[in-house]
Write a structure and sequence with these properties.
The chain is of the alpha+beta class and 343 residues long. The protein is built from 12 helices and 14 strands. The strands form 3 sheets. Strands 1, 2, 3, 4, 5, 6 and 7 form a 7-stranded antiparallel beta sheet that branches. The chain has a 5-stranded antiparallel beta sheet with strand order 8-9-10-11-14. Strands 12-13 form a two-stranded antiparallel ribbon. Helix 3 (20-27) packs antiparallel against helix 4 and helix 8 (188-195) runs antiparallel to helix 9.
């Protein structure tokens, strides 16, 4: 049996790679949930699927070495569990209207947990959803009906994998490696001038010029992603991925590590709304930080803010000219404090 610290610690779980059947009694104390997970796990194994530890409180369900779905255990004040799916191998699947309706009610939206924010666009059984997680179908604390539908999806995906078929590529999607190479070799202002249009393009080019004047030179990091440094990371700039292109044109992320030192100056220049309007509320994504944190900023107490927000990072999507001018001023204030501090 496992100790409490072994359940919480990523390092301990990575070392032991626990089987979900061995530890669910430590997560849950109600017999119905324990029985549901045990029965589901037994069904998976009976159908020649592997249930392998993948990360803290996450188990991959695989067929012939390829992931079909995941089981995620959410440990907190109220523990729960989830079955989530990627959809690439479900595009040609045929389901009844009742099953589709249940799935549509269980769409998982972006919760700002990674670099793919603010989510993506998916067509799920002929219905369009925007701002979705990259695993858009998720049955949280699934009931009997949802578990049976999850089994149907698993059977469909497993059949796809065993058939040896390949996932059809979107003919409109550019080759990521080719695009990344173009971005790596081009100056950011040259690349953006080809990707953006009209006022948005002009505003972004002026912004890049202002950054360079302040000795912040954004450098290519990875596909659609640039980072600017000044005595450490100070800003990020990104373009949308293929499944995000109708959601935003570009975005700027700023790191105001020492915001408390110049909070009054921000308010005197009426720049606080750049931060306040872009704080993201906690959406209960990681298992240890829900219900977010309380932030005391600009004479306000804001409850339940995502732990990845200010001062860690504030993302501004499609900033206009006035907002970009304000962002430059915020970065200048941050730079002034960093100048006085040792690296």
């Amino acid at each position: 049996m496992y100790e409490e610290h072994e359940l919480i610690s990523y390092k301990m779980q990575k070392k032991n790679k626990p089987k979900i059947a061995d530890i669910i009694t430590a997560f849950f104390d109600d017999d119905d949930t324990i029985s549901a997970i045990q029965n589901f796990n037994s069904w998976l194994l009976a159908n020649k699927l592997t249930v392998a530890w993948a990360s803290r409180n996450v188990w991959d369900i695989k067929c012939k070495g390829k992931r079909v779905c995941r089981i995620v255990v959410k440990k907190g004040a109220v523990s729960s569990w989830c079955i989530d799916f990627e959809t690439a191998m479900l595009e040609d699947a045929v389901l009844g209207e009742k099953e589709k309706t249940v799935i549509w009610k269980n769409i998982q939206y972006c919760v700002n947990c990674s670099s793919c924010m603010p989510g993506r666009i998916f067509n799920i059984f002929n219905k369009k959803f925007e701002g979705c997680c990259i695993r858009p179908i998720a049955f949280n604390a699934p009931n009997v009906e949802e578990i049976e539908i999850a089994k149907q999806l698993i059977e469909i995906i497993s059949t796809f994998i065993r058939s040896g078929r390949e996932i059809a590529k979107d003919p409109t999607s550019p080759n990521p490696a080719h695009v990344a190479q173009q971005q790596k070799t081009a100056k950011i202002e040259d690349y953006f001038s080809e990707q953006l249009e009209n006022k948005i393009k002009n505003a972004s080019l002026d912004f890049f010029m202002d950054l360079k004047k302040n000795k912040i030179v954004p450098k290519f990091k990875m596909l659609n992603w640039w980072e600017g440094n000044y005595k450490g990371l100070i800003c990020k700039i990104r373009l949308p991925y293929h499944q995000q292109t109708t959601m935003f044109s570009w975005a700027v992320g700023i790191y105001l590590d020492h915001i408390k030192a110049y909070e009054n100056e921000i308010m005197n220049n009426e720049l606080q709304n750049i931060i306040l309007d872009n704080l993201i509320p906690c959406r209960n994504c990681p298992f240890t930080c829900a219900l977010g944190v309380d932030v005391n900023i600009f004479d306000k107490k804001i409850k339940g803010v995502c732990i990845k927000c200010s001062p860690k990072i504030t993302w501004i999507f499609d900033p206009d000219k006035a907002t970009l001018t304000g962002i430059v001023k915020l970065l200048e204030l941050e730079q002034q404090v960093r100048k006085k501090k040792p690296v």
